[in-house]
Amino acid sequence: MLGILIVLLGGLYLGLYLIRRMSGITSDRKSSQLLQVLCIRHVGVKKQVALVQVPGAMLVLGLSGDHIQLLDKIAGPEPDRQVPDHE
What we know:
Elements: H1 2-23, H2 29-32, E1 36-44, E2 47-54, E3 57-64, E4 68-75
Antiparallel strand pairs: 1-2, 2-3, 3-4
């Protein structure tokens, strides 16, 4: 019974490994992401402001329970500013 459990768990692990390998998912997620959430601040009940970096710009987004709104766009070549997240 223990042997069957080991074989099943090994098969599941191998299957997940192969699925990840074929889909292109890597463990180095930071370098491959085009969209990075730099900072999120809560400003009220179910209301937040988020600073998001995309290639070529930084976006300031207003988030609420039912929608997302673009508040400002900071354009330019990859901003060098590092924004610490102190939640």
